Structure formats: structure tokens, C-alpha cells
Amino acid sequence: MSKDHVDALLKRATQQLNRIRDEYQNSLNNQLVSNDLKIDITEYCMKIRAALDYVGQDISRKYCSVPPKHKVYFPIIKNQKQFYECMKKWYPGLDTTCPTVWSYLDSIQPYNSSFQWLELFNQITNANKHVDFVEQVRKQSVEIRVSGPAKATVEPNTVTIVAKKIIYTGSIDADKVILYADEITFGPGAYINGVPIDVDKMLPKPHPEQKVDYIKWVDFLFKDFNVSVLGLLSQTLSGVSHVVDDIYKLL
């Protein structure tokens, strides 16, 4: 399989991800994700997985002495000991014939913190393939950004507050304060930069020098994994594209 074929798959995946984004945008007011959208997500994940496996086959053909029907999978392994065992079976001799590729594959496994997304992608892909669609849930949050008037003694900075079951009654002083209204409660006597909080609205009272931005965020999560659907799909496409380019430079 050539890199051109792998690139074509990733191009198709990019086009499909754009459609998925549009479909999510159209369904922001819905509580459930349609089966059509779930199918699109499953097909998207399968394209990414197929592209990786084609890369694995190219590595095997070039550097490993294996039978023609030898099954090769791109390694996505949770711990390093299992990685070594799978590599011996899937890519026999690669550590000798091309140690740079072997080391690179080792460096991108999910037991390396910057590639934990790869294991999430793999789990969701396998779950969608072998059982019913991975359940998705709608999550809505409200972000409130308060800026000015900062007290003279306050250094320019940003304070972000995300706290459940905590009642704030004191003063919060910062150049910018970010609050998540669905997770925070203010009690009597609470202030932001000297401006009192209206405890009925959970917002600072109107002040000519203070700006309050009220932003509503809506996202869908893979329920059992508690991860943003679009966030993971986008990260996967970007990450896999870099991995593919890096490997073919080494081949």
C-alpha cells in the first residue's frame, strides 16, 4: 500500500469530519444524537484505523520477513511490556532491520502521556465496531467572563473558578474572572473586584466600569469515556496525520 492511498483515506476522513461538525452544529438544541450521525462517526473512525493499519503493512513489507498472509495491525498498546510482545509477533525483527521506526512506534504508544488520546480513539473505534454505538450525552455549561474594574493592588491576571457545592462569600479580585455558572454559587457578601454579586442572578450587579460576558457552551461527550466527541475526533485526525508523515519519512 502506498502513502498516496493512506493520504487519500485521511483526506476522506477530513471531509467526513467537516460534515460531522456541521451535523453537530445543526443538532445543538437536541438532547440526543441521531443514528445517522453515529454512523458517520463510526465510519470516520474506521477510516482512520484503516489508514494506520495500511502504514503498518508498509512497515512490515519493507522490513519484516513474514508470510504473505501474515496479519499486521498498527500497534496501539496500553503498556510497554505488551507492546514488546505484540511487536515481536506483528513486526518480527523490526528492532534490528529498522530500529528508528521501532523506536518511533514505541514513542507514540498511549503509555506515553502525550499519546493517551490514541488509546481513547482505539477503544471507541472497537466499541462502535463490536457492540452498539458508544452512547453520547449532551453537556451544556455557562461561562461568565468578568473584566474590570480591577483594584489598584491587583496584578493583571485571570482567575478561573470551577467548583461544585462551594458557596463563595468573600471578595474575588483579578484583572479577569471566569466563572462557570452551573457549578458555582455565591452567598451574601460576595464581591468581584469590589462589585457586589446579585445572589438571585449569580452575576455581578451592573457597574459602568465592569464588563460581563455571558457565554453558553454546548458539547456532546462519549458518555463512558467522559471526553468531547468533536474534541477527540479532531485531535485524532491531527495526531494521526503527523504520525503518518513521520513514519513515511523514516521508511
Low-confidence parts lasting 5 or more residues at pLDDT below 50? 150-168
Integer-rounded radius of gyration? 24 Å
Number of helices: 7
Q: Tell me the helix content.
A: 40-55%
Total beta-strand segments = 11
Query: On the 0-100 scale, what is the average pLDDT?
Result: 80
Strand order of the largest sheet: 2-5-1-10-11
The 3D shape can be described as elongated
Largest sheet: 5 strands, mixed
Please state the structural category. Answer: alpha/beta
Structural write-up:
The structure is a single chain. The chain is an alpha/beta fold and 251 residues long. It has seven helices and eleven strands. The chain has a five-stranded mixed sheet with strand order 2-5-1-10-11. A four-stranded mixed sheet has the order 4-7-8-9, with no helix packed on it. Strands 3-6 form a two-stranded parallel sheet. Helix 6 packs across helix 7 (229-250). The longest helix is centred in the N-terminal third of the chain and has 29 residues, at 35-63. The protein is elongated and about 75 Å long. The relative contact order is 0.15. Residues 150-168 have low confidence and may be disordered.
